[in-house]
Specification:
Layout lengths: L8 H33 L18 H34 L6 H31 L11 H29 L2
Helix pairs in contact: 1-2, 2-3, 3-4
């Protein structure tokens, strides 16, 4: 199997990401609908999750809505990242990996990953409280944060590659 072009590994990966993206979009729509429904009818439907609540007088309505907001944001950021990766793979398939648009796409992926990490921090605080448990500790994963840094560094490498490609195209 070839790496770029029609029927390549990059093409198959792009298709697989598109397939996965459908389910991420369904999750984002479901979380968004539940968030809007919680604004209209409240979060009484979450009462069954709070049977063993340690704090029966907690502010479950706010934490429940924040949990739904976190789920919506996590799905939205994931959708954003997958779409940017698919566009990068499309340009790679067309033989133009070092175009300037890929620099912006990689930066967008980095910001999306940053958003997911911040959403995970928020969810580690509010999600347990939404079901009546005490807040859990946020697991600071150094690998995830270094991965985000690597994506931003890779975007700068692509910026240099784009400049070199443009310079090569103008050279006779």
């Amino acid at each position: 199997m070839k790496l770029v072009g029609k029927y390549s590994a990059a093409s198959a990966l792009r298709w697989l990401l598109g397939f996965f993206n459908v389910f991420v979009m369904i999750g984002a729509v479901a979380a968004g609908v539940l968030l809007v429904a919680s604004m209209i009818i409240g979060v009484d439907w979450m009462d069954a999750l709070r049977d063993g609540a340690t704090d029966p007088d907690g502010n479950y309505e706010l934490t429940g809505r924040l949990t739904l907001l976190g789920a919506f944001l996590a799905c939205g950021f994931t959708w954003w990242i997958i779409n940017r990766l698919r566009r990068i793979l499309l340009s790679v398939n067309q033989g133009d990996a070092f175009e300037f648009a890929n620099v912006k796409r990689l930066q967008a992926v980095g910001f999306g990953l940053l958003g997911i990490q911040l959403t995970a921090l928020m969810l580690s605080i509010v999600a347990p409280q939404a079901i009546g448990q005490s807040a859990s500790d946020y697991d600071f994963d150094l690998g995830s944060w270094l991965g985000i840094l690597v994506v931003f560094i890779l975007a700068e490498v692509f910026r240099q590659g784009s400049a070199m490609r443009d310079e090569q195209l103008t050279t006779v």
